[in-house]
Amino acid sequence: MSSLDRNQTQTYWRSLDDLADAAPELKKIIDDELARDGEAAGDGPLSRRRFMQIMGASLAFASMAGAGCRWEKEEIIPLGKRPDNYIPGKPKFYATAMELGGVATGLVATAYDGRPTKIEGNPQHPSQGGGATTGFAQASVLNLYDPDRSRHFVRKGGTLPLDASWKSFQRFAAEHFSKLAQSGGRGLRFLSEAQSSPTVRALRAEILARFPQAQWHEYEPLSRDNEREGTRQAFGAPMRVALNLTQAKVIAAFDSDFLIHHPAALKNARDFARGRRPDDKVMNRLYCIESAFTATGSAADHRLPLRSDLVLPFLLALEARLARNPGASPKGAFLAEPEVAKFLKVLASDLLHNRGKAVVTVGPRQPATAHAAAARINALLAAAGRTVVYYVDEDPERVPHTADITRLCRDAGAGKVHTLVILGGNPVFNAPVDAGFKNALAKIETSIHLSDNVDETSSVCTWHIPRAHYLEAWGDGRAFDGTYTLRQPILEPLWGARSDIEVLAAIAGKTETPQELVRKTLDTVLGPATIDGTLRWRKAIHDGFVPNTAFATTTKAPGPAPAVRLTASQNAGTRRANGDLEVVLVPSTATFDGRFANNGWLQEMPDFMTKLTWDNAALMSPKTAAALGIHDEDVITIKSGGRTVDAAVYLMPGQAPFSIALAVGYGRTHAGYVGGLASAGIDPPGVDVYPLSTTKSPHIIGGISVSRTGRTYKLVGTQDHWKMDKLGMAEREERAALLIREATLKEFKQTPNFVDHMMHVPGHGSLWQEIKYDGHKWGMATDLAACIGCNSCTLACQAENNVPVVGKDRVAMEREMHWLRIDRYFRGDPENPTVAYQPVGCQQCENAPCESVCPVGATVHSSEGLNDMTYNRCVGTRYCANNCPYKVRRFNFFNYREFLDNPKNKVTSLQYNPEVTVRSRGVMEKCTFCVQRIQAVKIASKNDKRPIRDGEIVTACQQACPTDAIVFGDLNDEHSRVRKLHESPRAYAMLEVLYTRPRNNYLARIRNPHEDLS
Amino acid sequence: MSEHNQTNPPADGPLWGLLAEVSTPTELVSAAAKVRAAGYTQWDCYSPFPVHGIDRAMGTKPTILPVLVFMGGITGTGLAILMQWWMNAVDWPWIVSGKPYFSLPANIPIAFELTILLASLTAFFGMWALNKLPQVWHPLFRSDRFAKVTNNGFFLAIQADDDKFDREATEALLKEAGATAIEAVHLDADPKKKKMPRQIPAFIAITAVAALVPFACIAKARTSKSSEPHYHIIPDMDFQPKAQAQQASALLPDGRVDQMPVEGTVARGELKADDHFYRGIVDGAWATTFPEQVPPSKESIERGHQRFNIYCSPCHGLSGYGNGMVAQRAEKIGSPNWTVPSNLHQEYIIRQPHGQIFNTISNGIRNMPSYGAQIPEADRWAIVMYVRALQRSQHATVADVPPTLRQTLR
Amino acid sequence: MDTAIDKDETPQKSTAAAVFQRVTETVSGVVERRTWPKAWYIAFAISCCLVVLLGISLWHLFFTGIGIWGTNNTEGWGWAIVNFVFWVGIGHAGTLISAILFLMRQTWRTSINRSAEAMTIFAVMCAGIFPLIHVGRPWVVYWMFPLPYDMDIWPQFRSPLMWDVFAVSTYFTVSLLFWYMGMVPDLGTFRDRAKSKIKAVVFGVLSFGWRGSAKQWHRYERAYLLLAALATPLVLSVHSVVSFDFAVSQQPGWHTPIFPPYFVAGAIYSGFGMVLTLLVPARYLFGLGDIIKKSHIEAMCKVLLLTGSLVAFSYMTEFFIAWYSGNPYEGFTFFNRVFGPFQWAWGIMAFCNVVVPHFFWFKKCRTNPWIIMGLVLLVNVGMWFERFIIIVSSLTREFVPATWDYFVPTFWDAATFLGTIGMFLFLFLLFLRYLPMIAMSEVKAATPEAHADHHGTH
Fold it and tell me: How close does chain B come to A593, measured CA to CA in Å?
């Protein structure tokens, strides 16, 4: 804050290029800084970044020292030359794109004064759910400002730091690779994470042309190759299987979380929700057969918890039934078990009954044969071209990822590799253990790694190149359906980081700038420009994508079913003994495959199902645990072959019997001060479970035995803080039914206003003259029939409203700060319960109980009926929070911005939304209905002298929601959507019996079960 | 309680009165009755505790204290209700829990408390006032014997200024009334010199002054000026860690928050595909027509007029002769590096196509800065249109005047 | 030691002067004695340590934030307000004894009212700390007073916290006036007994130059009566207002109209508990047996029995209404108190407040100082837990089950509470040391010798 540490910070941000010829004292500072980054900083101010240490003096008193008890002096530094129509502080929006697992998603970034602060979906993009975003996309902006991103190049052997820089790398590359070129590039290998960028592809072609002997490998820990191979089996060529759920009446998902962990999850979610409109009596039916409880499973009308390795035989049995060829059905003992058999029977009949309107989808972790079977089943259901679309894969020759990396390791082990260029990814952390990547890497003399920070892989490479964040670099990619998607940078790289394109260009010895390269790619995609190339280019980057560039589709018929050899386990029953358990490695909802491990928002985001934060756990069904004599929060040793992992147990209702689910991507040692940094003594959240994954069975590992270590470990979640006693359980069951009102489609058709009959509400007359709201009357409607509990809204809210991260210890003390939480309730049999979600933000009650109890009037009503929270006026009595029946108010128990006092962490503050106050210690805060967005629209409409259009004001949560479950608007406008929803028979107010008259109404959840199964 | 070692009070000053001691409360009562019967007025009884029946014996009139207390209480109630009504319903009304701005029930507790408070204060201070206390000096305190009055002594004193006072007669009366001891109490020799220890007023004065110091400091701070920023001990949320427009920032290039957009990027809604409207170019040449977004119309020209006067006239002058205020001033002070703004009525400017003038406004020319940031495209075109009108007006001929109006010319 | 007192119980006949002299000597003797019982020094040392602990916890709190306590999103108040209500409750006996018993002409009150009032004042001081420090930003707590400061905003008078501000400050002021006024004549005694000039001056000033003139006594008595009459409804109102903090809110377990009488009963119960806790030892330490008579102690035990039963009755009523109202949320809250995670706390409360007072049916329990001490300490514990149950157990489980949680206090919760206990003791011990702990003039007035018809002469 004071000018002193401003100077300090100055030295942090600049890339070393600028400092190569800086004054000696500057060099010294850099040396210190580097040393500091490297060495174990221990319990220094640095590790506050972890939010875990006890807070010292608050910001107030810290700045007391800095500012000397006097009002701060601030400078105004405008731009010298302003761009056209630029108004300082007014946001601009840029189309860009983010790539995850080889699929690009079109995004729109909000930039204040050229500084990205918020990510939204690109509403025009054809392959996505409107403006919605995944949680990862929402949180990705925080990665841009992650203080732990590496700020300089690192070169082993070189004399640190000043000879490691982009310049020196270029020098090195020019010399090193021209030498290699003479030998045709023998021993030169490339290892890239899955990349769909045509520009990268083009560079790759040029490089391989320049180095004929070189080879290009690709690896993703959570790859969808099984689907490729499965379709290859079925059709002879690999395909991308896309769902078209708008057409689907019956959907059967086999171990497939297609609403969350799917490249087209947003589109799937939107289409799925559009297929469930109870008010129009339109309802599809979703069957889920899965081991781990997924969000998709929670949205299902029927769910069968089944070990992942039993999914294949189940599929084959289903195929046999559908093909009316019982002989082909496997004879698995579990198929004979009553509820499996019944489920299978009903599912089969329902599918057949809806031929042409039904679809079967299989998750990526299922073996290729399962995907092949699914392809054949979809053919039987005449799904192809209707409910399922097959896109022709763009490079059929590619070897599957696991095989590919195995090959690389083999060659390296044999000493055939001496230069390895690794583009992104983190193979040392997440490659299958038996591939032995780390040892292989040790044998390679020159290894160059391009990555966000000095991670597990970079730390053992000879070169580390800081990788540019997608908001910092030009680039492109292909969406799941192949639509060509462009990425433009919003700001110059903060720490002089470089993109894959730049590195490859340097290796290929090209001189064009990345922008020129991408533009060239566009020309190859669109063909040479006819008239004005510039306009075409500008339009492409303006829109963020080029329409009609999707992959070709095919409706080829699948080949006949080959004989499938099933293992003994796949033929056995569902009941197993210890030693015959299965472990399923699932993608983490927080870290994906580990790449988001250092993202505080994601780490603190409660998992959909477990509501756990800052940890992964071994999920087990209560019965299974009982059978194995294991209790909640026991630490168990999981043994597979010779490899073991110790993890804490979380009893997960609905987890398949004798199957254990473990989320990958935790337990990192080189992620950073949030995700774990061994060198600084920061323990990682959760445990690393990749050691269980092998090339043969990467994600479904059988023959597992578990044993108790006798230790226990405190798992921390945002719900069920206090393990429920019987009394509480019973009461919760009862209340959940009133909080989340639910009916089947049948019941709903019979009594459309069933919500009103669920609880007796005494006829309330007001004791006083109620306040009238004649102008605007903001209201919200949340459709529980659509909500899939995906947390996008929570993260969007966090990003929009500067909601702090508090850290595991504080979540453990029930002090999480999320303004919008998603309550999760289980119902029925703990072995196979149904789940209901309820997003709860401030209900903006008209008779707000919080207001009358505030002694200083810090929270009062606006003339538009908003329950305003005046931070500056708040004294912090916490009476309002006590008196809030919904418990949506959040209190700043500490100064949660204290980590900013450390100059290194200041960069995080660049993400803060300038339109929203950053709250200090000791004040209350809560959902404001995104009042800043309301005001922005009001001003805009006032300027062009027109009324506010319905749907013009979009709250952050609403914008992010893939299923369009949240609607905001003016209740006084009788044509507004929200008004109509409030008038829907399904609409009810949470705890209306208290007569708080919330402005947010919930629409009752409607399920569509099959009468034979319910 | 021996009376031998007790010396009589000093008899230096004028006589104040006679102090008589009696042994029991009962005797005090009877003595009081006697003295009263004797018709004395300036006298009083003294005892360690309120003696039962003494009031009747002395004929003390009931005090008016209860009346005062009642009035105090009423004031409290009124004050409380008024305060709450004015503060919450008049001066700063707010919507709280959808309730009316003013409703009595919520104000009752405070009204009650203030009633009690003011009533009690009246009772306490009223009592001392009526008793003329505190008064730490009194002639009686000069009598050692009188010290027993707070222990077990019962006294009756008749003052010398009583009309009926007569030393012998009174003394006799007191004896007759059962006094065990009688002594004369004299005022101090020097009437001005009270038996008030000097430390007390000193102490009070010092504390009073000390109490004023902080207020003095505040008063000074409020009135005096300083080049330093004012004191602000706990900033709370006044200095936001977030980056705001036009702030300085150590984290971003050239130390400012505002950053130019990355070269070649296109923000949403800034595609600006229409070369004519956004750049004033048609088929690679300066446009000679106005774009359809800004059709030539009275409104456009008026808009242009207004914008011209705001942005252009300071240099170019209201009628475009390059003699705006700034220009005049620059000439007056003979500013060395000052290029005279163009006269918009020069031939070559008149001949310039619309597009070129538009471009000059957008990007500036010679010393003229670009106005692209301040003036939106449509307004720039409106200005061009107005400039055209100006040029035309300054080179008008009679032919330009509508025939119907010509004869009005002279 | 008991027998010793019994001897003192019946003072031998003597002249009025002798009796009054004796009263003066005994009471003043306490203050004037050269050496003090070891117990006093030990107690004082302990209380000093605790006061230091209080200072440290407040410092830490001020610089770090409310987070050092166990409060959380669902349970916003925790120990701070529990302690506040606890101390305010304690602070009730004093004024009650002085005022109500005065109006009822209960002469036995004269032996204890002075120290009870002192206790009231110190307890209210301890209570007053918590509302000030429990807020998130203590440095702006003055916004809770209707002051014209720079923001030009006024307080929000619908909030029960505002009512608290007025109720507690009024109560403190009035108690202070009442206490001081009662003390003035005795300060006069000290003045007249003073050996050193300083003492004479100090007490001279403090006693306002009291002369004990009949006219002054007349107004004095009237004022005292008026104050008593005003203080009586005030006592009843203060804890009612405190109970509004809960009764006016919406939470199950809080939103109950029985709270005002229930809280007042509890307050008197805990207040008398604390009076006995302090006076039983003081009585023996300073040999005041002939002034604080056994009958007085017994009377107070009986008050405990009565108020304890009132409290128990309130509990029953609460449960009955919870069931009878048919409000499911209210019903669950009370089930949860008995069978839920805070069962243990409820058990302690029920034993201490419902069972314990009934020991006072037995004379032995009313007379044996050791038994009395044991029981009244339990009473104090029980009343603290009553507030704990009301505040914590209600909040941790109310309307939305997803937000249910538990409450775990931290070291600093305990440190702050102990600190206030220390402060309370500290002040009380100083009071014993330097001020007349028994109202001499009142005791004298209450002796038979004080009455005109005593010797039967008239």
Answer: 30
